[in-house]
Specification:
With about 350 residues, the chain is of the alpha/beta class. About 50% of the residues lie in helices and about 15% in strands. The chain is globular and about 65 Å long. The N and C termini lie far apart (about 45 Å). About 45% of the residues are buried.
Amino acid sequence: MGALSAVVLGFHLVKTAGLVVNLAAFPVLRAPGRPGPRTSILVPARDEAETLRGTLPGLLAQPAAEILVLDDGSRDGTAAVVAAFAERDGRVRLVTGTPPPPGWVGKNWACHQLAGAATGDLLVFCDADVTLAPGALSAVHQQIHAQRADVFSVFPRQHTGTVGERLLVPLVDETLLGFLPHPLLDAPVPGAATANGQLLAFARGAYERIGGHAAVAGSIVEDLALARRTRARGLKLGLALGGDLVGTRMYTGYRDAVRGFGRSLHAGRRRWLLAGAAWQFAAYSLPWLRRGSRAWRWAAALGLAQRVLAVAKTGRRGYLEALLVPVTAPAVLPVVAVALRGTARWKGRTYP
């Protein structure tokens, strides 16, 4: 067994073990849930008129005290859509945002304004493209109670519509479930911290204690920064998968996914981005080119098995996506190229 094949095989064994642990240990939202504290659902929205027409009905089906949608300088009629829903349900309120001050990422500033306008004891930040099924918020309340969480995050079920999306989007679930065994959240391991800004809930006291979005004003990957601050301050971080209750389609094609993931990786150090791309090729493509030894054959098989395990846990049912694993590494290269640019551009805004 060569040195490289041994390292690659070891990597796959560790990741597969993490996935096996999380098959049993990682919670999934399920109905029925339980009543919770007075809850504010907070939605930052920039050019989301069409999206909100599809997702606001799901928010209205939740037992929230209020649903605040901040129009972040939209140019597509987002405010009019929200106003129409507000006429149907008095819990819906349109908040007109102001331009972000210097040093602020637009979404962080929008969330900061929403928190200031909210009256709830539980603040649930929810992206405009996240769909909540009836019972979702009660299931969130249930898991917050069960995990004794001060800050709680849901990883929605990822819906994909094109082959390009299926090349990249499943990496979110696979990375989470392979490298963060859920029991680590109860262990004294501050580095075991992640979150998903698509649905991120805070007890109001916890939000204020970690400094809220003001503490991560300039962070493009604000959810991870908030998760790390949560654990650094000794607060309890909770995580769950969305299951049948929380879902989203983040991107509408390969190019859209490249831009989105490239923006998220933009904060990474260049040498780590390049090293990560090289490792992705070594771990997932090279075993199919060097299948002569037993180690390479096992590595190739485990790479496929990991995708199958992740799909089984999330309930996505996209088992044939495993056939795309050997070509994932080349598909990631444009993401790295976007991340290596001097600036990140998103929603019409540019960040250094």
